[in-house]
Design brief:
Blueprint (H helix, E strand, L loop, with lengths): L1 H20 L1 H14 L5 E7 L5 E7 L15 H4 L2 H9 L6 H7 L2 E4 L6 H4 L14 E4 L12 H12 L4 H17 L14 H7 L5 H18 L1
Parallel strand pairs: 3-4
Antiparallel strand pairs: 1-2
């Protein structure tokens, strides 16, 4: 009953209320981003959602547009500023995702939307995490967030979609606020920004270079044909 008839209307209502309540924070954050990091203020990125439908996810940008002598963007850890780290640690960078919730792309609670390039490296069982709307926060985020392995993260996602309840969602919302307040598990130990699934599998020798390259090409084609 909750999953089929209540969760989506509740998501819309809570997201709309949050947009109104947090509008001053939204405005101040947007102004600071424009001053400290430049424009555009919002960062958009393609993410696979429910039933693997690809959508544009909105966030406040946390990195500069610095490039090398060839015009290529510098590594993420170089472009990520102290202000950007603050936005990520407080989850303020994710406020624009409320727009995605209003549009129906996302839910308040659910598996976090990963990159298209992450999805293609998942097994068929793991890709079942896309059978529901992806969330602003989820079970994996309150059980380690970016400081657990990819296998553990996806297993938490699968546990969640097998047991979606009202009280379970309320508990995750409460724990998410605590995590954001304490600024815990923002990044993987020893890695400044979250590691992509493909990079993790390659680094841990679970796939080879050829499979890695083929999957990256697949993700580019998939993103290009669906948007």
């Amino acid at each position: 009953m909750y999953r089929k008839f209540i969760k989506r209307p509740m998501d819309f209502t809570l997201a709309l209320l949050a947009l109104i309540v947090f509008s001053p924070i939204w405005f101040i954050t947007g102004v600071l981003v424009a001053i400290k990091l430049g424009r555009p203020v919002l960062f958009t990125q393609l993410r696979p959602g429910k039933d693997e439908k690809i959508f544009k996810m909105y966030k406040f940008r946390t990195m500069t547009n610095q490039t090398d002598e060839n015009g290529e963007l510098l590594p993420d850890d170089v472009r990520l500023t102290k202000f950007g780290k603050f936005l990520r640690s407080t989850s303020l960078d994710e406020l624009p995702e409320l727009i995605n919730i209003l549009k129906g792309d996302m839910s308040i609670i659910g598996p976090r939307p990963q990159l298209v390039r992450d999805m293609v490296f998942m097994t068929d069982k793991q890709r079942r995490r896309h059978s529901v709307r992806q969330g602003l926060s989820g079970l994996a985020q309150v059980n380690g967030r970016n400081n657990i392995t990819w296998e553990e993260k996806i297993e938490y996602d699968l546990q969640y979609i097998d047991n979606i309840t009202f009280f379970g969602d309320v508990k995750i919302i409460f724990l998410s606020f605590i995590k954001a307040f304490k600024r815990e598990d923002i990044a993987t130990d020893g890695i400044e920004t979250a590691e992509d699934l493909g990079d993790y599998l390659l680094r841990t020798h679970k796939i080879d270079e050829l499979e890695y390259t083929e999957k990256i090409d697949e993700s580019k084609q998939l993103a290009g044909t669906k948007i």
